[in-house]
């Protein structure tokens, strides 16, 4: 039996994701921070515009981390943390607390999780759109 390795998320991929997300945000007139993590949760790329709110950097990182840990867009997880939801009692004793606000999107290659992108600074729906646009641009 042979297996084919899936190419990991590279620094070049990560920079392309950041550029695409920033381009989408600038087109919409929104200032954002963008974080890209590899499959191991290591920071590959980060950008915060000087005009962005300082906390947007931490927000984008936590969104990316959440999307990576749960292998799902954070926009799809919002209801899961409400009382009675699947993750309502999910422990937050992880390295970094999870953040269930739209704007984190996992990155897949050949059906395998290779990283995640997080965008913070706009409205949650905008951030999700910017992150999703970046992932589509990478494909």
Automatic annotation (TrEMBL):
Highest taxon above the source species: Bacteria
One Pfam family recorded for the sequence: HbpS-like
SUPFAM superfamilies hit by this protein: GlcG-like
Signal peptide stretch: none
Protein name (Swiss-Prot/TrEMBL): Heme-binding protein
Organism: Streptomyces violaceorubidus
């Amino acid at each position: 039996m042979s297996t084919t390795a899936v190419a990991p998320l590279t620094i070049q991929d990560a920079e392309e994701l950041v550029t695409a997300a920033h381009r989408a945000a600038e087109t919409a007139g929104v200032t954002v921070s963008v974080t890209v993590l590899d499959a191991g949760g290591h920071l590959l790329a980060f950008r915060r515009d000087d005009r962005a709110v300082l906390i947007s950097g931490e927000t984008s990182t936590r969104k990316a981390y959440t999307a990576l840990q749960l292998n799902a867009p954070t926009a799809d997880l919002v209801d899961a943390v409400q009382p009675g939801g699947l993750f309502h009692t999910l422990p937050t004793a992880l390295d970094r607390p999870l953040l269930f606000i739209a704007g984190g999107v996992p990155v897949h290659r050949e059906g395998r999780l290779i990283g995640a992108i997080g965008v913070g600074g706009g409205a949650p729906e905008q951030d999700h759109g910017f992150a999703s646009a970046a992932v589509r641009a990478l494909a």
